[in-house]
Protein backbone atom coordinates (compact mmCIF):
# COMPACT_ATOMS: atom_id res chain seq x y z
CA UNK A 1 0.00 0.00 0.00
CA UNK A 2 1.31 3.43 -0.84
CA UNK A 3 1.09 5.59 2.25
CA UNK A 4 1.51 8.75 0.20
CA UNK A 5 -1.71 8.12 -1.63
CA UNK A 6 -4.87 9.37 -0.01
CA UNK A 7 -7.57 6.83 0.72
CA UNK A 8 -10.98 7.27 -0.81
CA UNK A 9 -13.59 9.14 1.20
CA UNK A 10 -15.80 6.66 3.13
CA UNK A 11 -19.19 6.12 1.51
CA UNK A 12 -22.08 6.69 3.94
CA UNK A 13 -25.22 5.09 2.59
CA UNK A 14 -28.80 6.05 3.34
CA UNK A 15 -30.06 4.62 6.63
CA UNK A 16 -32.19 1.48 6.61
CA UNK A 17 -33.88 -0.15 9.59
CA UNK A 18 -31.38 -3.01 9.45
CA UNK A 19 -28.35 -0.70 9.37
CA UNK A 20 -29.86 1.41 12.18
CA UNK A 21 -30.08 -1.55 14.56
CA UNK A 22 -26.74 -3.01 13.41
CA UNK A 23 -24.89 0.24 14.07
CA UNK A 24 -26.89 0.76 17.25
CA UNK A 25 -25.63 -2.61 18.51
CA UNK A 26 -22.10 -1.59 17.56
CA UNK A 27 -22.70 1.61 19.54
CA UNK A 28 -23.66 -0.42 22.62
CA UNK A 29 -20.35 -2.27 22.38
CA UNK A 30 -18.56 1.06 21.93
CA UNK A 31 -20.26 2.36 25.07
CA UNK A 32 -19.14 -0.72 26.97
CA UNK A 33 -15.63 -0.15 25.62
CA UNK A 34 -15.49 3.28 27.23
CA UNK A 35 -16.05 1.87 30.72
CA UNK A 36 -14.82 -1.75 30.68
CA UNK A 37 -11.07 -2.33 31.12
CA UNK A 38 -9.17 -3.75 28.18
CA UNK A 39 -11.70 -3.16 25.40
CA UNK A 40 -10.74 -0.79 22.61
CA UNK A 41 -13.69 1.09 21.12
CA UNK A 42 -11.78 1.71 17.91
CA UNK A 43 -11.06 -2.00 17.51
CA UNK A 44 -14.80 -2.71 17.80
CA UNK A 45 -15.51 0.00 15.22
CA UNK A 46 -13.04 -1.67 12.85
CA UNK A 47 -14.72 -5.05 13.38
CA UNK A 48 -18.08 -3.54 12.39
CA UNK A 49 -16.50 -1.64 9.45
CA UNK A 50 -17.63 1.77 10.72
CA UNK A 51 -14.30 3.16 11.99
CA UNK A 52 -13.47 5.34 8.95
CA UNK A 53 -17.10 6.42 8.66
CA UNK A 54 -17.24 7.56 12.30
CA UNK A 55 -14.06 9.63 11.91
CA UNK A 56 -15.37 11.11 8.65
CA UNK A 57 -18.81 11.91 10.11
CA UNK A 58 -17.38 13.62 13.19
CA UNK A 59 -14.89 15.60 11.11
CA UNK A 60 -17.60 16.76 8.69
CA UNK A 61 -20.58 17.11 11.05
CA UNK A 62 -20.89 20.84 10.32
CA UNK A 63 -20.23 20.60 6.58
CA UNK A 64 -22.63 17.71 5.90
CA UNK A 65 -24.81 17.84 8.97
CA UNK A 66 -27.83 15.77 7.88
CA UNK A 67 -26.03 12.73 6.48
CA UNK A 68 -23.41 12.71 9.24
CA UNK A 69 -25.98 13.22 12.00
CA UNK A 70 -28.23 10.40 10.74
CA UNK A 71 -25.25 8.07 10.49
CA UNK A 72 -24.03 8.88 14.02
CA UNK A 73 -27.49 8.88 15.68
CA UNK A 74 -27.93 5.10 16.32
CA UNK A 75 -24.28 4.79 17.28
CA UNK A 76 -24.57 7.58 19.87
CA UNK A 77 -27.80 6.08 21.27
CA UNK A 78 -26.06 2.71 21.54
CA UNK A 79 -23.01 4.27 23.21
CA UNK A 80 -25.21 5.86 25.90
CA UNK A 81 -26.97 2.54 26.57
CA UNK A 82 -23.73 0.56 26.63
CA UNK A 83 -21.97 3.08 28.85
CA UNK A 84 -24.78 3.06 31.44
CA UNK A 85 -25.01 -0.75 31.50
CA UNK A 86 -21.24 -1.13 31.73
CA UNK A 87 -20.88 1.56 34.35
CA UNK A 88 -23.36 0.14 36.85
CA UNK A 89 -22.14 -3.41 36.24
CA UNK A 90 -18.50 -2.62 36.79
CA UNK A 91 -19.11 -0.18 39.64
CA UNK A 92 -20.51 -3.03 41.73
CA UNK A 93 -17.66 -5.50 41.14
CA UNK A 94 -14.46 -3.60 40.25
CA UNK A 95 -13.24 -3.15 43.82
CA UNK A 96 -13.60 -6.80 44.88
CA UNK A 97 -12.68 -8.50 41.60
CA UNK A 98 -10.18 -6.16 39.95
CA UNK A 99 -7.72 -8.85 38.84
CA UNK A 100 -10.45 -11.17 37.50
CA UNK A 101 -11.99 -8.35 35.46
CA UNK A 102 -8.57 -7.41 34.12
CA UNK A 103 -8.04 -11.03 33.02
CA UNK A 104 -11.42 -11.09 31.25
CA UNK A 105 -10.86 -7.92 29.30
CA UNK A 106 -7.17 -8.53 28.72
CA UNK A 107 -8.14 -11.84 27.13
CA UNK A 108 -10.79 -10.15 24.99
CA UNK A 109 -8.24 -7.61 23.84
CA UNK A 110 -5.63 -10.25 23.00
CA UNK A 111 -8.21 -12.30 21.10
CA UNK A 112 -9.08 -9.30 18.93
CA UNK A 113 -5.49 -8.56 17.86
CA UNK A 114 -5.69 -10.58 14.60
CA UNK A 115 -8.06 -7.91 13.27
CA UNK A 116 -5.30 -5.34 13.69
CA UNK A 117 -2.43 -7.59 12.57
CA UNK A 118 -4.08 -8.66 9.32
CA UNK A 119 -4.01 -5.05 8.14
CA UNK A 120 -0.19 -4.99 8.19
CA UNK A 121 0.83 -8.66 7.88
CA UNK A 122 1.46 -8.46 4.11
CA UNK A 123 3.10 -5.03 4.21
CA UNK A 124 6.82 -4.44 3.79
CA UNK A 125 8.81 -4.27 7.03
CA UNK A 126 11.03 -1.17 7.19
CA UNK A 127 13.16 0.35 9.97
CA UNK A 128 10.59 3.16 10.31
CA UNK A 129 7.71 0.73 10.77
CA UNK A 130 9.66 -1.36 13.27
CA UNK A 131 10.44 1.82 15.21
CA UNK A 132 6.78 2.89 15.18
CA UNK A 133 5.74 -0.53 16.50
CA UNK A 134 8.31 -0.35 19.33
CA UNK A 135 7.27 3.20 20.21
CA UNK A 136 3.60 2.22 20.26
CA UNK A 137 4.35 -0.82 22.43
CA UNK A 138 6.38 1.27 24.90
CA UNK A 139 3.96 4.16 25.42
CA UNK A 140 1.20 2.41 27.49
CA UNK A 141 3.73 0.33 29.44
CA UNK A 142 5.83 3.35 30.41
CA UNK A 143 2.71 5.31 31.30
CA UNK A 144 1.41 2.50 33.51
CA UNK A 145 4.80 1.91 35.16
CA UNK A 146 5.28 5.59 35.93
CA UNK A 147 1.91 6.03 37.59
CA UNK A 148 1.89 2.62 39.27
CA UNK A 149 5.35 2.64 40.79
CA UNK A 150 7.22 5.90 40.27
CA UNK A 151 4.81 8.74 40.95
CA UNK A 152 3.87 8.56 44.62
CA UNK A 153 0.47 10.22 44.45
CA UNK A 154 -2.51 9.21 46.52
CA UNK A 155 -5.24 10.05 44.02
CA UNK A 156 -8.00 9.33 46.54
CA UNK A 157 -6.51 11.96 48.87
CA UNK A 158 -6.13 14.44 46.02
CA UNK A 159 -9.77 14.03 45.07
CA UNK A 160 -10.76 14.44 48.72
CA UNK A 161 -8.90 17.78 48.86
CA UNK A 162 -9.75 18.87 45.28
CA UNK A 163 -6.94 21.39 44.59
CA UNK A 164 -7.74 23.87 41.81
CA UNK A 165 -5.31 22.27 39.36
CA UNK A 166 -7.08 18.92 39.36
CA UNK A 167 -9.77 20.42 37.08
CA UNK A 168 -7.13 21.44 34.54
CA UNK A 169 -5.70 17.93 34.75
CA UNK A 170 -9.24 16.55 34.33
CA UNK A 171 -9.67 18.55 31.10
CA UNK A 172 -6.36 17.21 29.72
CA UNK A 173 -7.22 13.66 30.79
CA UNK A 174 -10.57 14.07 29.01
CA UNK A 175 -8.68 14.91 25.81
CA UNK A 176 -6.41 11.88 26.28
CA UNK A 177 -9.42 9.67 26.94
CA UNK A 178 -10.98 10.78 23.66
CA UNK A 179 -7.79 9.63 21.96
CA UNK A 180 -8.44 6.08 23.18
CA UNK A 181 -11.71 6.09 21.24
CA UNK A 182 -9.90 7.14 18.05
CA UNK A 183 -6.75 5.01 18.04
CA UNK A 184 -7.44 1.26 17.72
CA UNK A 185 -5.95 -0.82 20.50
CA UNK A 186 -6.22 1.77 23.26
CA UNK A 187 -8.66 1.46 26.16
CA UNK A 188 -10.14 4.42 28.01
CA UNK A 189 -10.38 2.49 31.26
CA UNK A 190 -6.80 1.22 31.00
CA UNK A 191 -5.66 4.84 30.65
CA UNK A 192 -7.73 6.00 33.64
CA UNK A 193 -6.58 3.03 35.70
CA UNK A 194 -2.95 3.73 34.74
CA UNK A 195 -3.04 7.25 36.17
CA UNK A 196 -5.20 6.40 39.18
CA UNK A 197 -8.33 8.27 38.05
CA UNK A 198 -10.57 5.27 37.43
CA UNK A 199 -11.52 4.15 40.95
CA UNK A 200 -12.09 7.66 42.41
CA UNK A 201 -14.26 8.62 39.42
CA UNK A 202 -16.26 5.39 39.63
CA UNK A 203 -16.84 5.81 43.37
CA UNK A 204 -17.86 9.45 42.91
CA UNK A 205 -20.94 8.62 40.84
CA UNK A 206 -23.33 8.15 43.75
CA UNK A 207 -25.91 10.41 45.37
CA UNK A 208 -24.11 10.36 48.72
CA UNK A 209 -20.70 11.27 47.24
CA UNK A 210 -22.08 14.00 44.97
CA UNK A 211 -24.05 15.44 47.90
CA UNK A 212 -21.04 15.53 50.21
CA UNK A 213 -18.68 16.81 47.49
CA UNK A 214 -20.70 18.65 44.82
CA UNK A 215 -17.41 19.88 43.31
CA UNK A 216 -17.30 16.48 41.58
CA UNK A 217 -20.03 17.80 39.26
CA UNK A 218 -17.68 20.55 38.06
CA UNK A 219 -14.87 18.02 37.60
CA UNK A 220 -17.05 15.70 35.52
CA UNK A 221 -18.25 18.65 33.43
CA UNK A 222 -14.66 19.71 32.71
CA UNK A 223 -13.65 16.10 31.97
CA UNK A 224 -16.53 15.59 29.51
CA UNK A 225 -15.80 18.97 27.90
CA UNK A 226 -12.19 17.89 27.37
CA UNK A 227 -13.39 14.59 25.91
CA UNK A 228 -15.72 16.34 23.43
CA UNK A 229 -13.13 18.92 22.38
CA UNK A 230 -10.45 16.27 22.03
CA UNK A 231 -12.68 13.86 20.13
CA UNK A 232 -13.68 16.48 17.57
CA UNK A 233 -10.20 17.95 17.01
CA UNK A 234 -8.29 14.65 17.16
CA UNK A 235 -10.78 13.00 14.80
CA UNK A 236 -9.80 15.56 12.17
CA UNK A 237 -6.10 15.03 12.87
CA UNK A 238 -6.24 11.23 12.74
CA UNK A 239 -8.46 11.24 9.67
CA UNK A 240 -5.65 13.15 7.95
CA UNK A 241 -2.90 10.91 9.37
CA UNK A 242 -4.65 7.65 8.50
CA UNK A 243 -5.46 8.93 5.02
CA UNK A 244 -1.87 9.99 4.27
CA UNK A 245 0.11 7.32 6.16
CA UNK A 246 -2.42 4.53 6.61
CA UNK A 247 -0.05 1.56 6.83
CA UNK A 248 2.59 3.31 8.92
CA UNK A 249 -0.09 4.40 11.38
CA UNK A 250 -1.28 0.81 11.75
CA UNK A 251 2.23 -0.33 12.67
CA UNK A 252 2.05 2.24 15.48
CA UNK A 253 -1.43 1.01 16.38
CA UNK A 254 -0.23 -2.61 16.50
CA UNK A 255 2.43 -1.65 19.02
CA UNK A 256 -0.11 0.31 21.07
CA UNK A 257 -2.46 -2.67 21.08
CA UNK A 258 0.06 -5.14 22.48
CA UNK A 259 1.47 -2.54 24.86
CA UNK A 260 -2.03 -1.94 26.22
CA UNK A 261 -2.50 -5.67 26.85
CA UNK A 262 0.67 -5.68 28.96
CA UNK A 263 -0.18 -2.43 30.76
CA UNK A 264 -3.62 -3.61 31.83
CA UNK A 265 -1.85 -6.12 34.08
CA UNK A 266 0.48 -3.46 35.45
CA UNK A 267 -1.32 -0.25 36.34
CA UNK A 268 -2.02 1.57 39.57
CA UNK A 269 -5.21 -0.28 40.55
CA UNK A 270 -3.89 -3.75 39.73
CA UNK A 271 -0.51 -2.92 41.28
CA UNK A 272 -2.33 -2.26 44.55
CA UNK A 273 -3.79 -5.77 44.34
CA UNK A 274 -0.34 -7.27 43.83
CA UNK A 275 1.33 -5.32 46.65
CA UNK A 276 -1.40 -4.75 49.26
CA UNK A 277 -4.12 -7.37 48.91
CA UNK A 278 -2.43 -10.59 47.79
CA UNK A 279 0.46 -10.56 50.32
CA UNK A 280 -2.04 -10.22 53.17
CA UNK A 281 -4.76 -12.57 51.94
CA UNK A 282 -3.73 -15.94 50.51
CA UNK A 283 -7.35 -17.03 49.97
CA UNK A 284 -7.99 -13.96 47.84
CA UNK A 285 -4.81 -14.62 45.87
CA UNK A 286 -5.85 -18.22 45.19
CA UNK A 287 -9.37 -17.15 44.17
CA UNK A 288 -8.11 -14.45 41.79
CA UNK A 289 -5.55 -16.68 40.09
CA UNK A 290 -7.74 -19.79 39.87
CA UNK A 291 -10.59 -17.85 38.25
CA UNK A 292 -8.72 -15.06 36.47
CA UNK A 293 -6.18 -17.09 34.48
CA UNK A 294 -8.70 -19.62 33.04
CA UNK A 295 -11.03 -16.73 32.13
CA UNK A 296 -8.13 -14.98 30.38
CA UNK A 297 -7.54 -18.08 28.22
CA UNK A 298 -11.25 -18.65 27.56
CA UNK A 299 -11.89 -15.01 26.57
CA UNK A 300 -8.82 -14.95 24.32
CA UNK A 301 -9.97 -18.07 22.45
CA UNK A 302 -13.62 -16.96 22.28
CA UNK A 303 -12.87 -13.53 20.82
CA UNK A 304 -10.22 -14.98 18.49
CA UNK A 305 -12.78 -17.42 17.08
CA UNK A 306 -15.35 -14.63 16.77
CA UNK A 307 -12.90 -12.48 14.81
CA UNK A 308 -11.79 -15.46 12.71
CA UNK A 309 -15.31 -16.48 11.65
CA UNK A 310 -16.32 -12.83 11.24
CA UNK A 311 -13.44 -12.32 8.79
CA UNK A 312 -14.22 -15.56 6.95
CA UNK A 313 -17.81 -14.42 6.53
CA UNK A 314 -16.62 -11.00 5.35
CA UNK A 315 -14.25 -12.59 2.79
CA UNK A 316 -17.05 -14.81 1.50
CA UNK A 317 -19.35 -11.82 0.94
CA UNK A 318 -16.53 -9.88 -0.75
CA UNK A 319 -15.90 -12.79 -3.13
CA UNK A 320 -19.61 -12.96 -3.97
CA UNK A 321 -19.75 -9.20 -4.59
CA UNK A 322 -16.60 -9.38 -6.72
CA UNK A 323 -18.08 -12.21 -8.78
CA UNK A 324 -21.29 -10.24 -9.34
CA UNK A 325 -19.30 -7.19 -10.45
CA UNK A 326 -17.34 -9.32 -12.93
CA UNK A 327 -20.54 -10.79 -14.37
CA UNK A 328 -22.04 -7.30 -14.73
CA UNK A 329 -18.95 -6.10 -16.62
CA UNK A 330 -19.13 -9.07 -18.99
Question: What does this entry look like structurally?
Answer:
With 330 residues, this protein is an all-alpha fold. It has one domain (17-329). The protein has 16 helices and no strands. The chain has helices at 17-35, 41-47, 51-59, 65-93, 98-111, 113-120, 127-150, 155-161, 165-180, 188-194, 198-204, 207-212, 215-244, 246-263, 268-277, 282-329. The longest helix is centred in the C-terminal third of the chain and has 48 residues, at 282-329. The relative contact order is 0.15.
Describe the secondary structure blueprint for this structure.
Blueprint lengths: L16 H19 L5 H7 L3 H9 L5 H29 L4 H14 L1 H8 L6 H24 L4 H7 L3 H16 L7 H7 L3 H7 L2 H6 L2 H30 L1 H18 L4 H10 L4 H48 L1
Short characterization:
By secondary structure, the chain is an all-alpha fold.
Radius of gyration: 21 Å
Q: What is the mean pLDDT?
A: 80
- Written as H for each helix and E for each strand, in order along the chain, the element string is HHHHHHHHHHHHHHHH
Low-confidence stretches: none
How many H/I helical runs?
16
Helix/sheet category: mainly alpha
Q: Any idea what the shape is?
A: globular
Oligomer: single chain
Helix content estimate: over 70%
The biggest beta sheet reads: none
Distance between the termini: 28 Å
Number of strands: 0
Quickly count the domains.
1
Strand content: under 5%
Amino acid sequence: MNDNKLKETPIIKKRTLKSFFKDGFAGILLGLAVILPGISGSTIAILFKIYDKILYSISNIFKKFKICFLFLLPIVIGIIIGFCVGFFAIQSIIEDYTFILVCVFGGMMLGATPEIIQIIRKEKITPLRISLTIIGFSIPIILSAVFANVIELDMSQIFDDFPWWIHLVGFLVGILTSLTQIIPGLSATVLLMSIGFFTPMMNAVSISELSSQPIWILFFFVFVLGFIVGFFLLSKLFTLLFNKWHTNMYFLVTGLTFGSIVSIFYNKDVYDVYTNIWPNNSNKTTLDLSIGIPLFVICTIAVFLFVYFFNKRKEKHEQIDSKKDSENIE
